[in-house]
Amino acid sequence: xxxxxxxxxxxxxxxxxxxxxxxxxxxxxxxxxxxxxxxxxxxxxxxxxxxxxxxxxxxxxxxxxxxxxxxxxxxxxxxxxxxxxxxxxxxxxxxxxxxxxxxxxxxxxxxxxxxxxxxxxxxxxxxxxxxxxxxxxxxxxxxxxxxxxxxxxxxxxxxxxxxxxxxxxxxxxxxxxxxxxxxxxxxxxxxxxxxxxxxxxxxxxxxxxxxxxxxxxxxxxxxxxxxxxxxxxxxxxxxxxxxxxxxxxxxxxxxxxxxxxxxxxxxxxxxxxxxxxxxxxxxxxxxxxxxxxxxxxxxxxxxxxxxxxxxxxxxxxxxxxxxxxxxxxxxxxxxxxxxxxxxxxxxxxxxxxxxxxxxxxxxxxxxxxxxxxxxxxxxxxxxxxxxxxxxxxxxxxxxxxxxxxxxxxxxxxxxxxxxxxxxxxxxxxxxxxxxxxxxxxxxxxxxxxxxxxxxxxxxxxxxxxxxxxxxxxxxxxxxxxxxxxxxxxxxxxxxxxxxxxxxxxxxxxxxxxxxxxxxxxxxxxxxxxxxxxxxxxxxxxxxxxxxxxxxxxxxxxxxxxxxxxxxxxxxxxxxxxxxxxxxxxxxxxxxxxxxxxxxxxxxxxxxxxxxxxxxxxxxxxxxxxxxxxxxxxxxxxxxxxxxxxxxxxxxxxxxxxxxxxxxxxxxxxxxxxxxxxxxxxxxxxxxxxxxxxxxxxxxxxxxxxxxxxxxxxxxxxxxxxxxxxxxxxxxxxxxxxxxxxxxxxxxxxxxxxxxxxxxxxxxxxxxxxxxxxxxxxxxxxxxxxxxxxxxxxxxxxxxxxxxxxxxxxxxxxxxxxxxxxxxxxxxxxxxxxxxxxxxxxxxxxxxxxxxxxxxxxxxxxxxxxxxxxxxxxxxxxxxxxxxxxxxxxxxxxxxxxxxxxxxxxxxxxxxxxxxxxxxxxxxxxxxxxxxxxxxxxxxxxxxxxxxxxxxxxxx
Length: 955
Known about the structure:
By secondary structure, this protein is of the alpha+beta class. Helices cover 50% and strands 14% of the residues.
């Protein structure tokens, strides 16, 4: 035992000295191992620091209170909730189709236990004046300075409001608004002004734009003011922070639930009851949905696979570097053998090199991760949008990550250690390398792995639709290709007869010395294969998404819609677009308004209604028509009948599909709208001028050629009637229709009537916005200016500029190509350095007999280029196949969903799946041509033309 300790101690000392002498090589290997350790350790520190304990989460949500009570809005009937208060449902069964869902408010204060301290917390919104215009902002009324609320808001500067004419604002609001402490703020349609008294932040919502006022100081008077002005008052949600002696136990929470109130209790969250004691979890369809053991095992397996492949890549890259060190130290190792050292001592010295570098990489990576994470903590918090709970360091996790670095260093040094120990003492002292045949077993094992992986991937892509099986088979096949690399390198050697002298010498040298060439080629192969696989998949997905892309408008068209507050901002939004964009045709549009002028299109709020198109019963799709008992109408048809009905025009997707922020899809406009929408139908323009309803949906028009528009003034009654499957009450306006048949898309517009027709029918209209065509696609600068102008309006203005399909993968593909190029150049450079160490004597001899200096540069460049080219070619071939397998799997999955949709009667709006397989020729071209060429040129540039002339050792 003592001898073992002393021998390893000496080996570590020798390895440490050699690493210090060869600083460049040592730094290269250390960087390769330390950088991943740095990234993983920093991620661990960031993730753990951002994780909040239950106590920290409670501090940010309920402060120092014992509970938060809020209305479940079920009319005061009993509810069931989960321990966290995040899920709840009425306790009584509500699944009967004849039983409407309970609605209504509850007086939460009646559920507050006697003797409790209560703090009101109300939230609404308003458009506040800023230095730039208007900004829609959350308004929160809470006495943030009292002890019960401590922790919910963190004061950064100044103080919380103490008077009714003061507010505090989040730091993000101050940044966005251009205001500061001491500035005055008012709201649109509200004549009161407020002074900003302080700046605060919400620890878990750093991006929130919010202001804080005292209870009753803003929301109530603001609602009265805007309602008096004929505008819609904002929705306000109120909850209650309660502090009570003894807290709120689970029994107390359940008792309060009987009054229709949900409780977020500190005591219950910190000490939750068992699932069996939670009535909600016993209800069908509800449960404590936490991650399953199988899901955790799958996630662990995925992480293990990624870590294993990363370690393999580092070993393949670092292994040749250790081999370079062993080759350059062969005389020293020979002296160890000549002085009585055996093979185990030689292996120990080389392995100690991996141990020294691994330990150094672990220390450097971990220390840098700690320093950088601590230094960048404010930036990380801003990026993640929340403050850390603390700087959390878990030593065992960091030690485990550091152990991976040490293990990686040892694994990378194993093959060079075994190779060095097999050298005879005489060969080491004289510098002779000898000739060693490559293993015949490893290629056979690799071939078996390739065949096994191919069968698994083929099974996954053809028989099943599980992409995990395809990915697993592809990984096994790729590892098999890595094992076959020495044999594949030998096959490349047969192409040397057709090459000029210098590349032929480089290729033959690479083939004869597969021990140094194969790991570098395998490293390049692995990196390139991953890059090509991801690139092929990404480009194929882009082609699929491009084919399935549904434009919101004709290419280059612009729409600006302001549905809020009766279109109050519509005129300003129109003028902004007209002024800042290259507009050609402009079509102003309005909408049908039911109720007060300030009502939203969907009829939300008191005194508001909505309009909808009446679909004639004969035009309803039999698969979707409502039934008296609430059953699925498709169930009464056979599978063959459902497939046939899917092709019925009543069940097919009509041209008017798309998004328009209206309940009826009807626009009030003139014929210029048809021009903007690209509808070339002279009859439609004439019909619009004649007072007809221009319809883009066949299902709207009855047999008499009429379209009915129902005006619903009582939205609650209409919703109750719909729930009970009764006719919806409302006045119906009938219009003579002109149906546009030859149109492929109307972009969400179901019908158009002229302003004169709407007036003649007695309809009330409200401005909505405008549609535009442009001379050319707006530039980025024009878009930015327009976005700024729209933002100043502070309202919910929808701006759409149709630019066609744009891919988000271009940056990803570029990054992957750069990564693969860097790995290729690094691996090829390491192999070239090892080749130069082996051929130094031959190069000196060439220089002695008069070879020009450029021979050294040329040979070095071709050696690097040959390794890069072999790795890139093999990697490109290996990378395309997994992507093809994954795409075939997706095609089977989508085809199965499509067939199920047809069988179940959902296929009217479905199209057959289109899953193309596209080869990323640009990425492949860069990898196959640019990367090897760049590697060769770089190696030639950094290689010295002249070496130190010395006597060649006698053999």
